[in-house]
Amino acid sequence: MCQYQRMQAYPHGEVVIVVDCEDLDRAADFWTEVLGYSRDGEPSERYLSLLPASEHGPDVLLQKVPERKSGKNRLHLDLRTRDLGREVERAVGLGAVRLSTEPLLEGGWLWHVLADPDGNEFCVLQPPATYWT
Amino acid sequence: MCQYQRMQAYPHGEVVIVVDCEDLDRAADFWTEVLGYSRDGEPSERYLSLLPASEHGPDVLLQKVPERKSGKNRLHLDLRTRDLGREVERAVGLGAVRLSTEPLLEGGWLWHVLADPDGNEFCVLQPPATYWT
Hints:
The structure is a homodimer.
Chain A lengths: L12 E9 L2 H12 L2 E2 L7 E5 L7 E6 L10 E7 L2 H10 L3 E2 L5 E3 L2 E7 L5 E6 L7
Parallel strand pairs in A: 1-4, 5-9
Antiparallel strand pairs in A: 2-3, 3-4, 6-8, 7-8, 8-9
């Protein structure tokens, strides 16, 4: 389970993103596919770790909680990609719900707001072409 | 601003953690110190990017929002460290509020729940010693 040999951005240890969900398997199916992560073994009663394919990037810890989502998430993930339409379509095909009907535009950035199967918002964004150069 | 040359865990682009806050400067002061990150230039009206010291680890995007926090965060950060007491003390010294009076213990993991200056919960955890080996 130890990932400490992986390089970490946080000098005092590891940073992990914890995501609340109702069903660990359902959330794991969704987020492993969206992020290209893999499961770290079997879920415990309350937790399941998802690991990135390489040593780069944070672990995601799925946490089963009894309460449903209410209100807007105060932390969320942004997925920056080169082809907004394709990535949104891929996420929706995996079970995401698109919350924005039209793409949002600000400063050359174009994005959609989506929700995971638990209603947690995340964004898929297409930065300006100059971003990638 | 482009960080694409950095290695990324997400095969379709970049994953960024977005954190809602009331005051970009206050949140940046806090999270740069806690995570060892640095500011990516000056804040815009609504956004400020924080970058890890190395190419490993996700960017954090602070997002100014009008609403105050209500309810528990559905996504939060876990900071796994070797010395719980020292890291909690450091975070509190930087402006965190400790929400748990006594450390929580589960499966050999010991942790405290804290809140950033905007009330967003995060955890500081000390895994079992075997975790780091």
